[in-house]
User: Fold this.
Amino acid sequence: MTPFEWVEPKTLRQAVAALDPDDASVRPIAGGTALMLMMKTGVFAPTRLVSLANIEQKYSEIKVSRSGGLRIGAMVSLSALEQSADVAKRFPVITRALRTLSNVRVRNVARVGGALAHGDPHMDLPPLLAALGAKAVVVGKGGTHEIAVEDLYTGYYETVLGRNELIAEVIVPPLKRARAVYMKCTSRSADDWPALSVALRCDVARGGVIASPRVVVSAATEKVTRLVEAEKILDGSAGDEDARARAADAAVAEVSFLSDSHGSVAYKKELLRVYLARAVREALGNLVR
Assistant:
Protein backbone atom coordinates (compact mmCIF):
# COMPACT_ATOMS: atom_id res chain seq x y z
CA MET A 1 0.00 0.00 0.00
CA THR A 2 1.36 3.41 -0.94
CA PRO A 3 2.20 5.62 2.08
CA PHE A 4 -0.20 8.49 2.79
CA GLU A 5 -0.74 11.28 5.28
CA TRP A 6 -3.17 10.65 8.17
CA VAL A 7 -4.88 13.68 9.73
CA GLU A 8 -7.04 13.64 12.89
CA PRO A 9 -8.85 16.98 13.28
CA LYS A 10 -10.75 17.73 16.48
CA THR A 11 -13.67 19.56 14.86
CA LEU A 12 -15.77 19.22 11.75
CA ARG A 13 -14.60 22.64 10.56
CA GLN A 14 -10.98 21.54 10.88
CA ALA A 15 -11.80 18.41 8.92
CA VAL A 16 -13.30 20.49 6.11
CA ALA A 17 -10.20 22.71 6.09
CA ALA A 18 -7.95 19.64 5.74
CA LEU A 19 -9.69 18.54 2.55
CA ASP A 20 -8.58 19.69 -0.89
CA PRO A 21 -11.27 20.59 -3.46
CA ASP A 22 -8.76 20.14 -6.29
CA ASP A 23 -7.24 16.80 -5.26
CA ALA A 24 -9.29 13.60 -5.55
CA SER A 25 -6.64 11.64 -3.64
CA VAL A 26 -7.52 13.50 -0.43
CA ARG A 27 -10.54 11.91 1.22
CA PRO A 28 -12.40 11.97 4.52
CA ILE A 29 -12.73 8.66 6.35
CA ALA A 30 -15.46 7.82 8.86
CA GLY A 31 -16.03 4.08 9.35
CA GLY A 32 -13.92 3.26 6.32
CA THR A 33 -15.78 0.06 5.41
CA ALA A 34 -15.96 0.97 1.72
CA LEU A 35 -12.83 3.11 1.48
CA MET A 36 -10.53 0.46 2.95
CA LEU A 37 -11.79 -2.12 0.46
CA MET A 38 -11.08 0.32 -2.37
CA MET A 39 -7.56 0.84 -1.04
CA LYS A 40 -6.88 -2.88 -0.58
CA THR A 41 -7.94 -3.65 -4.14
CA GLY A 42 -5.95 -0.76 -5.58
CA VAL A 43 -9.00 1.12 -6.82
CA PHE A 44 -8.05 4.12 -4.70
CA ALA A 45 -4.63 5.32 -3.54
CA PRO A 46 -4.88 8.27 -1.13
CA THR A 47 -2.26 10.92 -0.49
CA ARG A 48 -4.13 12.08 2.63
CA LEU A 49 -6.95 10.67 4.72
CA VAL A 50 -8.84 12.99 7.05
CA SER A 51 -10.20 10.95 9.93
CA LEU A 52 -13.52 12.08 11.42
CA ALA A 53 -13.16 9.85 14.49
CA ASN A 54 -12.33 12.69 16.90
CA ILE A 55 -14.70 15.45 15.80
CA GLU A 56 -17.37 16.81 18.14
CA GLN A 57 -19.45 14.22 20.03
CA LYS A 58 -22.71 15.78 18.86
CA TYR A 59 -22.14 14.29 15.41
CA SER A 60 -22.33 10.81 16.97
CA GLU A 61 -25.73 11.41 18.58
CA ILE A 62 -29.34 10.78 17.65
CA LYS A 63 -31.79 13.44 18.82
CA VAL A 64 -35.57 13.64 18.65
CA SER A 65 -36.90 17.01 17.51
CA ARG A 66 -39.87 18.72 19.15
CA SER A 67 -42.02 17.72 16.19
CA GLY A 68 -41.11 14.05 16.55
CA GLY A 69 -38.55 13.89 13.76
CA LEU A 70 -34.92 12.84 14.06
CA ARG A 71 -31.55 14.54 13.80
CA ILE A 72 -28.98 11.84 13.15
CA GLY A 73 -25.31 12.76 13.42
CA ALA A 74 -23.20 11.69 10.46
CA MET A 75 -20.86 9.73 12.76
CA VAL A 76 -23.64 7.61 14.24
CA SER A 77 -22.84 3.97 13.51
CA LEU A 78 -25.41 1.86 11.73
CA SER A 79 -25.56 -0.39 14.79
CA ALA A 80 -26.34 2.57 17.04
CA LEU A 81 -29.10 3.61 14.64
CA GLU A 82 -30.45 0.06 14.59
CA GLN A 83 -30.44 -0.22 18.40
CA SER A 84 -31.85 3.24 19.16
CA ALA A 85 -35.11 3.08 21.12
CA ASP A 86 -36.10 6.50 19.77
CA VAL A 87 -35.67 5.32 16.18
CA ALA A 88 -37.55 2.06 16.82
CA LYS A 89 -40.45 3.94 18.42
CA ARG A 90 -40.84 6.64 15.77
CA PHE A 91 -39.41 5.00 12.63
CA PRO A 92 -39.64 1.21 12.97
CA VAL A 93 -39.11 0.96 9.21
CA ILE A 94 -35.51 2.15 9.71
CA THR A 95 -34.88 -0.40 12.44
CA ARG A 96 -36.26 -3.24 10.32
CA ALA A 97 -34.21 -2.19 7.28
CA LEU A 98 -30.97 -2.14 9.23
CA ARG A 99 -31.34 -5.72 10.44
CA THR A 100 -30.53 -7.04 6.97
CA LEU A 101 -28.11 -4.26 5.99
CA SER A 102 -24.87 -6.15 5.38
CA ASN A 103 -23.79 -7.87 8.64
CA VAL A 104 -23.31 -6.84 12.26
CA ARG A 105 -19.54 -6.42 11.86
CA VAL A 106 -20.05 -3.85 9.11
CA ARG A 107 -22.90 -2.12 10.96
CA ASN A 108 -20.68 -1.73 14.03
CA VAL A 109 -18.15 0.25 12.00
CA ALA A 110 -20.02 1.95 9.15
CA ARG A 111 -21.39 5.45 9.73
CA VAL A 112 -24.57 7.12 8.54
CA GLY A 113 -22.74 9.97 6.79
CA GLY A 114 -20.52 7.60 4.88
CA ALA A 115 -23.46 5.44 3.83
CA LEU A 116 -25.01 8.50 2.20
CA ALA A 117 -21.87 10.14 0.82
CA HIS A 118 -20.39 7.02 -0.80
CA GLY A 119 -22.90 7.12 -3.65
CA ASP A 120 -23.23 3.36 -4.11
CA PRO A 121 -26.78 2.71 -5.43
CA HIS A 122 -26.87 -0.65 -3.61
CA MET A 123 -26.84 1.01 -0.16
CA ASP A 124 -30.04 0.53 1.87
CA LEU A 125 -30.23 3.82 3.76
CA PRO A 126 -30.28 6.33 0.84
CA PRO A 127 -33.53 5.14 -0.80
CA LEU A 128 -35.26 4.71 2.55
CA LEU A 129 -34.25 8.13 3.85
CA ALA A 130 -35.16 9.69 0.49
CA ALA A 131 -38.66 8.20 0.71
CA LEU A 132 -38.99 9.55 4.26
CA GLY A 133 -38.21 13.05 2.96
CA ALA A 134 -34.92 13.33 4.83
CA LYS A 135 -32.35 16.07 4.26
CA ALA A 136 -28.58 15.99 4.64
CA VAL A 137 -26.95 18.94 6.39
CA VAL A 138 -23.76 19.62 4.42
CA VAL A 139 -20.84 21.67 5.74
CA GLY A 140 -18.17 23.20 3.52
CA LYS A 141 -15.81 26.17 3.46
CA GLY A 142 -18.66 28.26 2.03
CA GLY A 143 -20.98 27.51 4.94
CA THR A 144 -23.79 25.09 5.76
CA HIS A 145 -26.72 24.08 3.58
CA GLU A 146 -29.33 21.34 3.35
CA ILE A 147 -29.78 18.91 0.46
CA ALA A 148 -32.70 16.51 0.10
CA VAL A 149 -31.33 12.97 0.17
CA GLU A 150 -33.05 12.22 -3.14
CA ASP A 151 -31.05 15.09 -4.70
CA LEU A 152 -27.64 13.96 -3.43
CA TYR A 153 -27.02 11.55 -6.28
CA THR A 154 -26.14 12.34 -9.88
CA GLY A 155 -24.97 8.94 -11.15
CA TYR A 156 -23.19 5.70 -10.31
CA TYR A 157 -20.99 6.48 -7.29
CA GLU A 158 -21.50 10.18 -8.05
CA THR A 159 -22.96 12.83 -5.75
CA VAL A 160 -23.37 16.61 -5.71
CA LEU A 161 -21.00 16.87 -2.74
CA GLY A 162 -17.84 18.89 -3.31
CA ARG A 163 -14.48 17.38 -2.37
CA ASN A 164 -14.29 19.83 0.53
CA GLU A 165 -17.83 19.24 1.78
CA LEU A 166 -18.94 16.86 4.50
CA ILE A 167 -22.33 15.59 5.65
CA ALA A 168 -22.75 16.73 9.26
CA GLU A 169 -26.13 15.23 10.07
CA VAL A 170 -29.37 13.96 8.61
CA ILE A 171 -32.76 15.48 9.39
CA VAL A 172 -35.73 13.12 9.15
CA PRO A 173 -39.16 14.78 9.32
CA PRO A 174 -41.76 13.22 11.64
CA LEU A 175 -43.66 10.27 10.26
CA LYS A 176 -46.79 11.15 12.26
CA ARG A 177 -49.56 8.88 10.99
CA ALA A 178 -47.98 8.16 7.64
CA ARG A 179 -46.98 4.63 6.75
CA ALA A 180 -43.55 3.61 5.53
CA VAL A 181 -42.28 0.44 3.91
CA TYR A 182 -38.84 -0.65 2.78
CA MET A 183 -38.37 -3.80 0.74
CA LYS A 184 -35.42 -5.29 -1.08
CA CYS A 185 -34.68 -8.38 -3.09
CA THR A 186 -31.30 -10.06 -2.85
CA SER A 187 -30.33 -12.66 -5.42
CA ARG A 188 -27.82 -14.21 -3.01
CA SER A 189 -27.76 -14.15 0.81
CA ALA A 190 -30.12 -11.89 2.77
CA ASP A 191 -27.28 -9.59 3.88
CA ASP A 192 -25.76 -9.21 0.39
CA TRP A 193 -26.14 -6.20 -1.89
CA PRO A 194 -29.74 -6.06 -3.14
CA ALA A 195 -30.73 -6.54 -6.77
CA LEU A 196 -33.54 -4.07 -6.11
CA SER A 197 -34.73 -1.91 -3.23
CA VAL A 198 -38.02 -0.03 -2.98
CA ALA A 199 -39.08 2.45 -0.31
CA LEU A 200 -42.57 3.89 0.08
CA ARG A 201 -44.00 6.53 2.40
CA CYS A 202 -47.63 7.56 2.18
CA ASP A 203 -50.58 8.87 4.13
CA VAL A 204 -53.73 6.78 4.15
CA ALA A 205 -56.92 8.85 4.17
CA ARG A 206 -60.37 7.74 5.24
CA GLY A 207 -61.59 4.79 3.22
CA GLY A 208 -58.06 3.53 2.57
CA VAL A 209 -57.22 6.13 -0.06
CA ILE A 210 -53.50 6.75 -0.62
CA ALA A 211 -52.37 10.37 -0.26
CA SER A 212 -49.02 12.11 -0.84
CA PRO A 213 -47.02 8.99 -1.70
CA ARG A 214 -43.23 9.07 -2.06
CA VAL A 215 -41.76 6.09 -3.90
CA VAL A 216 -38.03 5.59 -4.33
CA VAL A 217 -36.11 2.80 -6.06
CA SER A 218 -32.43 1.93 -5.99
CA ALA A 219 -29.95 -0.93 -6.52
CA ALA A 220 -31.52 -1.79 -9.89
CA THR A 221 -30.61 1.72 -11.03
CA GLU A 222 -27.48 3.84 -11.39
CA LYS A 223 -28.64 6.09 -8.58
CA VAL A 224 -31.40 6.59 -6.05
CA THR A 225 -34.45 7.44 -8.18
CA ARG A 226 -37.79 8.85 -7.12
CA LEU A 227 -40.72 7.41 -9.10
CA VAL A 228 -42.72 10.56 -9.73
CA GLU A 229 -45.07 9.16 -12.37
CA ALA A 230 -45.87 6.11 -10.26
CA GLU A 231 -46.62 8.42 -7.34
CA LYS A 232 -49.14 10.35 -9.45
CA ILE A 233 -51.03 7.15 -10.23
CA LEU A 234 -51.07 5.96 -6.63
CA ASP A 235 -52.07 9.34 -5.21
CA GLY A 236 -55.82 9.36 -4.60
CA SER A 237 -56.19 5.66 -5.43
CA ALA A 238 -57.24 2.82 -3.15
CA GLY A 239 -54.07 0.92 -4.03
CA ASP A 240 -56.18 -1.75 -5.73
CA GLU A 241 -54.86 -4.22 -8.28
CA ASP A 242 -55.48 -1.92 -11.23
CA ALA A 243 -53.75 1.05 -9.57
CA ARG A 244 -50.80 -1.13 -8.57
CA ALA A 245 -50.43 -2.47 -12.10
CA ARG A 246 -50.58 0.99 -13.69
CA ALA A 247 -48.11 2.36 -11.14
CA ALA A 248 -45.75 -0.53 -11.86
CA ASP A 249 -45.94 0.15 -15.60
CA ALA A 250 -45.16 3.83 -15.00
CA ALA A 251 -42.28 2.95 -12.66
CA VAL A 252 -40.63 0.64 -15.19
CA ALA A 253 -40.95 3.31 -17.89
CA GLU A 254 -39.33 6.08 -15.85
CA VAL A 255 -36.34 4.12 -14.53
CA SER A 256 -32.94 3.67 -16.19
CA PHE A 257 -32.03 0.14 -15.16
CA LEU A 258 -28.55 -1.17 -14.45
CA SER A 259 -27.53 -4.69 -15.45
CA ASP A 260 -24.91 -6.22 -13.15
CA SER A 261 -23.97 -9.44 -11.37
CA HIS A 262 -27.19 -9.21 -9.33
CA GLY A 263 -29.46 -9.47 -12.36
CA SER A 264 -30.26 -8.46 -15.91
CA VAL A 265 -32.34 -5.44 -16.91
CA ALA A 266 -35.30 -7.68 -17.76
CA TYR A 267 -35.07 -9.40 -14.37
CA LYS A 268 -34.91 -6.10 -12.51
CA LYS A 269 -37.87 -4.68 -14.42
CA GLU A 270 -39.96 -7.60 -13.25
CA LEU A 271 -38.63 -7.20 -9.71
CA LEU A 272 -39.74 -3.58 -9.67
CA ARG A 273 -43.23 -4.52 -10.79
CA VAL A 274 -43.53 -7.17 -8.09
CA TYR A 275 -41.95 -5.27 -5.22
CA LEU A 276 -43.73 -1.98 -5.84
CA ALA A 277 -47.05 -3.82 -5.68
CA ARG A 278 -45.94 -5.60 -2.50
CA ALA A 279 -44.86 -2.33 -0.89
CA VAL A 280 -48.26 -0.76 -1.61
CA ARG A 281 -50.08 -3.78 -0.22
CA GLU A 282 -47.98 -3.76 2.95
CA ALA A 283 -48.49 -0.02 3.47
CA LEU A 284 -52.25 -0.43 3.24
CA GLY A 285 -52.40 -3.66 5.22
CA ASN A 286 -55.91 -5.09 5.50
CA LEU A 287 -57.35 -2.04 3.69
CA VAL A 288 -56.06 -3.15 0.30
CA ARG A 289 -58.30 -4.75 -2.25
